Amino acid sequence: GPGKGVIVFGRNETNQLGDGNTTDRLSPVALTGPHPLGALRLQQIATGFRHTLALTPQGEVYAWGWNLYGQLGDGTRGTAVRLVPVRVDGELSSKRVIQVGCGRFHSLALTDKGE
C-alpha cells in the first residue's frame, strides 16, 4: 500500500507546505518520520491560496497554513499561521470524510453520507 508522509516543494510563505516553517522549498522534500505528517497515511491533499488540507483513509481531516478567515476549521481565525497540522474536529469529529477541497479563503469536506 501507499507509504506515510508527503513530498512538498514550492512557495511556503504561510507554511502551506506543512513542513513547520515558512522557507520556500526549491527542490522536493519528504516529510516523513517524526514530522507530524510523516506519521499519517494520506489519501488526498487539497490546496487553497495559502492553506492545505489532508485526508486520511480513516476519514480524518488535517489542516495547516494561513487561517485569516477560519479556513483551517479549528474554531479560530486570525493572522497566525499554523506551522503544525491540526486535526479538524467540530462537526466532522463523528463523521467519515471521503473528499476535501479548498478555495482561496474556504475549505470543504464531503462525508460518506453525502453531507
Please summarize what this structure is.
This protein has 115 residues and is an all-beta fold. It contains no helices and 8 strands.
Number of strands: 8
Strand order of the largest sheet: 3-4-5-6
Q: What Rg is obtained from the alpha carbons, in whole angstroms?
A: 13 Å
Distance between the terminal alpha carbons, to the nearest Å?
A: 28 Å
Q: How much strand?
A: 35-45%
What letter string, H or E per element, gives the SSE order? EEEEEEEE
Helix % is under 10%
Say what oligomer this is. Answer: single chain
Give your account of this protein's structure.
This protein is an all-beta fold and 115 residues long. 0% of the residues lie in helices and 43% in strands. The protein has a four-stranded antiparallel beta sheet, with no helix packed on it. A two-stranded antiparallel ribbon has the order 1-2.
Salient structural properties:
single chain; 0% helix; four-stranded antiparallel sheet; mainly beta; 115 residues; two-stranded antiparallel ribbon
SSE diagram, text form:
Layout lengths: L5 E5 L14 E7 L12 E4 L3 E5 L5 E7 L10 E10 L9 E6 L4 E5 L4
Antiparallel strand pairs: 1-2, 3-4, 4-5, 5-6, 7-8
